[in-house]
Amino acid sequence: MIKYDLIIVGAGPAGLMLARQLDDTNLDILLVDQKKKLGSTNTGIYGCVRHVIDRLGLTEYIVNKPTGMYLYGSKQITGFKYKSCPYVNVDINKWAKELRLKCNKKLSTKILGIEKKDNGYIVMDDKKNKYYGEIVVDCTGNNQVLSSILGIRRSAQDFYSASFELENCSIPKERASEVAIAYDRTYTNYGIWFYNYGRKKCQFGMGDMVGAKDIPTKEIIKRAKQAMSREPWSIWLKDAKIEKESVGFGPTIGAHKPIVLDNFVSIGNAAGTGLPFIGVGLRFALEMSDYASQIIHRSIILDDCSTKQLSAIKKEFNRRYSRNFFYMQIFQQLGLKYMEQKDWDLFLDKFSKDFNSGEGYRLAYGDLDLPLLLKMFSFRSGMRMFFNIINFHLPKFLRFKERKCIPPFDSRR
Questions:
Q1: What is the pLDDT of residues 127-181, one digit of tens each?
Q2: I want to staple 162 with a disulfide (CB 3.0 to 4.6 A). Which of 77, 167, 224, 395 is the partner?
Q3: What does DSSP say about strands 201-208 and 159-167: parallel, antiparallel, or unpaired?
Q4: Per residue in 241-283, pLDDT tens?
Q5: Could you tell me the maximum CA-CA distance found in the chain, to the nearest angstrom?
Q6: Cβ atoms < 10 Å from Cβ of 62
Q7: CA distance 233 to 381
Q8: DSSP letter (8 states) at residue 1
Q9: What are φ and ψ of residue 224, in 5° steps?
Q10: Which residues contact 245 (CB under 8 A, 6 or more apart)?
Q11: Is residue 45 helix, strand or coil?
Q12: With helix as H, strand as E and coil as C, how does 303-329 read?
């Protein structure tokens, strides 16, 4: 049995960043992944805030610098243009392929077991090999492989998405660099996103707030393609060709927090399969790995890998994100989940009148607080949502007859 200071399971954005940040230390590290090669996440290009990408040395992998963010309703379009680009699209697959790690790597390897042994853990793979790690880190994202084997409660898998990389598009010059988010209950109960990479290439995606087991893969792909038929995309994508198609499921924002035990850590945010909205999966996966690397390194050097020592990872997570996660979860779970199309259109009307570009960016970035959350909804839209929640949850015979809330999308209808 081979012994390591650190074993990282999962070579997605979080696992790779953790390995990179510790690569110049004297730690003996093993990186394990079931993929055949590094750099093969479902969706290679993600949105992320610019300052995170620059700080972590990924600037050269920026493929697009959007000049504006737009929100689409049933008829209206609102949003902002920016002189300086606060967020970007970055090619994580290219970064992973060009990453030169000195640590030991085991690819095409599936982990089947993990058990506590003395002051560490033994990890078993599908080839009956065993590896001992003083600290083992689960970076398997929404799969939560090691956490599941250990019987730790899994994060809810309540988001299922389909996305396409498209070429041969016909995007107008004035719209060739933008990020768009749409809400259209005709196709989904959650949202649609659209990234332009110039006039000829883009990413189009759509997601539902339900578990993957509740929707056949063919169904989510079919509806995502149907969503491309709405204007203006029906014109821009008329002759477009799908170069890459992917589906993924995972937790929505706020559901996949760090787990810390003696000699064990689970970090990441399902960045490889979740929705690539600005400030969500990729940002948290990279930042969590960055600050966790410092704490893990210190713990091994001090020969103290206890829960108390490693809990600094959880404390730092809460310090950075707990407030934002709390209010974003309210917006997603109570807002989007119970919105009808008219409610979203009312929100866009208020957004176009009352929000400035800085507040629009904070919304995209996920930097929410109570004043901004309250500003998002008028009294009228708040009351509509209140009745939507009541109508959705009360038994049928108690429902308000004059209101009808649309439940999560049911493909059987």
A1: 999 999 999 999 987 778 898 899 886 666 667 788 898 999 999 988 887 888 8
A2: 224
A3: antiparallel
A4: 998 888 877 665 544 567 899 999 998 765 554 443 444 678 8
A5: 68
A6: 16
A7: 28
A8: -
A9: -65, -40
A10: 162, 163, 164, 165, 221
A11: strand
A12: CCCCHHHHHHHHHHHHHHHHHHHHHHH
HEC-encoded secondary structure of 88-135: EEEEHHHHHHHCCCCCEEECCCCEEEEEEECCEEEEEECCCCEEEEEE
Distance CA 162, CA 223 (A): 9
Residue labelled with tokens 């949202």: 191
What is the C-alpha separation between 365 and 86, in angstroms, rounded? 9
What is the spatial distance between Cα 153 and Cα 69, in angstroms, rounded to a whole number? 37
Helix (H, G, I), strand (E, B) or coil at 288: helix
Which tokens is 89 given?
């699209």
How many residues can be counted in the chain?
413
- The two structure tokens encoding residue 271: 């960045």
Q: What are 247's strand-pairing partners?
A: 162
Question: What pTM did the predictor assign?
Answer: 0.84
Q: Comparing C-alpha atoms, which of 257, 357, 261, 282 is closest to residue 43?
A: 282
Tokens in use for 255? Answer: 């559901």
